[in-house]
Design brief:
Layout (H helix, E strand, L loop, with lengths): L1 H8 L12 H13 L7 H4 L5 H12 L3 E6 L3 E3 L2 E11 L10 E6 L2 E2 L8 H7 L10 E2 L2 E2 L3 E9 L16 H53 L7 H8 L2 E8 L2 E8 L5 E9 L12 E5 L2 E10 L4 E7 L5 E5 L6 E5 L3
Parallel strand pairs: 4-8, 9-16
Antiparallel strand pairs: 1-3, 2-3, 3-8, 4-5, 6-7, 9-10, 10-14, 11-13, 11-15, 12-13
């Protein structure tokens, strides 16, 4: 790299520094900026946490709907190598109101005090989070959001001897900002997909709930037998539709396969109902703090229906696994 810099500047590598003219120094400086210098070896001098460990730790402690982590390439400031890691979480058990939770680390040590004087905080507040569908108040993101930033370096630039805040070094601030912006884009995609899924679920709920009622009323008016509205649902959805409804003390879960392939799925239902009289019986049942997890395994051919019914009050959570999210729709008619 040094030889390449000298060649670009048109200088010999054997020249003495005191023999360089002002023009030679300018040429050498320009060449140094043009030549790409390899990043320092992080495995030898830095100790990053790692994206996988960050994700697993956050998921364990906060149980969020979305978690993503990024490790930026190593860089250098004032001759000291450093690396920035960042993570962002959303939803789940995070507080829905108030400012986002900010976790700051330096060489794996949490920074507990002087948050306002830290360069990490300045980078967080300097980003326009509204571009990523996150509300913002006073520069700080708000809502069910968690942000983690870790700075690993051979010489972390603290603001004071107490080592409670990272100093505002431009190179470090740039890496923190780039990491958070990258995570913000991924979070925006997640929020957009979630909103689209919710809109599709609302439409599916309307189709599954309103069309049968319309058919029933029309049947009464024209005084003709009630027609089956399932083909209409199939034309509109073209997915595996899972419907859950509670009527007269009976909970019914019905899966309609409107796709063109067999659906091998596992039906997970978590509620206070133990489903002891379920038909068919659950393949697996567990009880935790009064919440029963029931699992049924089923293979549903195209245009066929799978159904289970049991005594209960309804409520809880229904999930279908074994099929892509884009090919299924879960509708709780009790909501």
């Amino acid at each position: 790299s040094a030889q390449e810099m000298c060649e670009r500047a048109g200088l010999k590598g054997t020249l003495k520094v005191r023999g360089l003219s002002a023009d030679d120094i300018k040429k050498l400086l320009a060449a140094m900026q043009d030549v790409a210098v390899p990043a320092p070896p992080t495995t030898q001098c830095l100790s990053p946490i790692g994206e996988e460990l960050i994700r697993r730790g956050l998921e364990k402690e906060f149980q969020m709907d979305f978690v993503a982590a990024r490790t930026r390439p190593s860089s250098v400031f004032s001759g000291h190598s450093f690396m920035v890691e960042a993570a962002i979480g959303y939803g789940g058990r995070l507080p829905a109101e108030g400012n986002a939770i900010l976790l700051r680390f330096a060489n794996r040590v949490p920074l507990m005090y002087q948050q306002g004087a830290c360069a990490i905080t300045e980078c967080v507040t300097g980003i326009n989070w509204k571009l990523y569908n996150i509300s913002q108040a006073g520069g700080f993101p708000t809502g069910p959001v968690l942000i983690l930033v870790h700075v690993a370096s051979t010489n972390v630039p603290f603001t004071s001897e107490s080592k409670d805040a990272v100093a505002g070094i431009p190179e470090i601030e740039k890496e923190i900002t780039l990491a958070l912006q990258d995570l913000g884009r991924e979070l925006k995609n997640f929020v957009s997909r979630r909103d689209k899924s919710k809109l599709a679920e609302d439409r599916a709920r309307a189709v599954c709930a309103i069309i049968p009622e319309i058919a029933e009323k029309v049947s009464e008016i024209v005084e003709k037998p009630l027609v089956d509205t399932s083909p209409i649902e199939g034309k509109l959805m073209r997915k595996l539709i899972a419907k859950k409804a509670t009527r007269d003390g009976r909970v019914t879960i019905e899966l309609n396969n409107y796709t063109t392939q067999d659906a091998e799925v596992s039906v997970y239902e978590i509620s206070p109902d133990n489903a002891a009289d379920a038909v068919p019986m659950a393949d697996f049942v567990s009880d935790m703090d009064g919440q029963f997890t029931k699992v049924w395994k089923a293979t549903i051919p195209p245009r066929e229906v799978w159904r289970v019914s049991y005594t209960g009050k309804g409520g809880g959570l229904l999930d279908i696994r074994g099929i892509e999210d884009a090919k299924k729709m879960v509708v709780d008619l009790d909501v």
